[in-house]
Structures are given as structure tokens and as C-alpha cells.
UniProtKB/TrEMBL annotation:
One of its GO terms (molecular function) is single-stranded DNA binding. Its EC number is 3.4.-.-. This is Abasic site processing protein. It comes from Litoreibacter meonggei. It holds the Pfam family SRAP. Belongs to the SOS response-associated peptidase family. InterPro entries: SRAP, SRAP-like. Keywords: Covalent protein-DNA linkage, DNA damage, DNA-binding, Hydrolase, Lyase, Protease. The keyword DNA damage applies. Gene3D superfamilies: SOS response associated peptidase-like (3.90.1680.10). GO terms for biological process: protein-DNA covalent cross-linking repair; proteolysis. The lineage of its organism: Bacteria, Pseudomonadati, Pseudomonadota, Alphaproteobacteria, Rhodobacterales.
Amino acid sequence: MCNLYSNTTASEAMRQLFKVDATRDHLGNAQPRPGIHPKGTAPVVALDDEGKRELVEMSWGFRTPKVSKVTGKPIKPAAWNNARDDKLMKSGLWKGSFADRRCLVPVSSFNETKGQKPATDYWFALAGEGDDRAPFAIAGLWRVEREDLLEPEHPRRVHTMVTTEANDLIRPIHAKGRMPVILRPDDYETWLTGSLDEAAALLRPYPSDEMRIVLQGVGEKRDEAGL
């Protein structure tokens, strides 16, 4: 399960990578996001009503109502920020979005934590040299959320990341053996517009030898991803 990621890519670079026309970049003066947590807002690439790619702000995590076991009164809603690949066609939470609302989640690196008291935080990025972290995309889903489940300042659209079995690099670190589905640029269009079978074929671990650990730290999560 991924509960923290970063996106430090400039808007212009995201437009080029994801082939988004400048007129459909709705991020405004977007700043780098060194630490994105569940319920936080982040850039997402989705299709607009005309089927064109757009860059928009979404809040991370599908919300579901939650009540207190003690009082029975509503409390802060749960945020489902990860969607298992083997549940996409079975769960009512994901089925509609997998069929009709797939998206790309731009990422520079993501965090997984191992152990407790103290925990060790590992940040993963694509393979490369030096401190530069090439932007990439994680397979995502989105939907328009119920307004009463969101904070007033949050956008109505929310997103989640799809996860699959972990590769050999991440498996020793992630207790449940999961990792986000990383997509190759040639697969972006298929994920956004392909059939269910074509999209499902992309749900696989990313090769270990094409990834690296860019930061390892003991103690509190590093929101700034070591940047």
C-alpha cells in the first residue's frame, strides 16, 4: 500500500510527458509536491468530456462514510487511496471507475515503510543517475465524490492508485507484498482508453532492474522525499 508519494515535476514537463495541450492544463501555478498524503491534492491526467487529456487537481482517496463505534455518529470518512488489481472488477467501489474513469497519476518517487518504532522509510524512483528523478505515471482511477464527504477546499474529483504484486526490489520492504502499478509511456493511451481486457493486461509489477531506492531513513516519514 502506498500512503505517500511525491511529484516535483514542473507543469510544462508534465504536459510534454503526458501529451496534454496547454489549454487543458488546469493546474494554474502548480508548485512541486514533495510529500503527497491521503486526502491531499495532487495533479492527475484524465480525459475530459471530449475525450482529450487534461491536467487537473484531484484529492487522493475515494471517500466512504464512517460512523463512530461508540456514538454511532458520523466521523471523518475513510479515504481509499489504493485499489487492488484483483478487486477492480469485483468491488463496487472500483468497478465503475475501472470501466469508465481511468487516469494517470504523475509521480517522481513513492514511499514504503518497513518496521515500527523506529520505522525505516524507503523512497523508490525509476532507475537513473544522480539525484534526478525522472517523472513517471502510476495507473489510477477517479470519480466525482459526494460533497458531504470532502473538506470544503477539496476538489470534487478524487483519485486512487492501482496496486499489484510487488517486484523483487519492493517485496522485502512491503509487508503485504504490494506496489503501485507503474505504466510505461507507450501504455498511457491504452490505460486511458483501452478495453477492460487491454487495461487489465497492464496490471503487472514493474521490473526491479528499472527501479532504485533513492532515499532510506529511520524515524519519521520524510515529507520532502529527501529533496
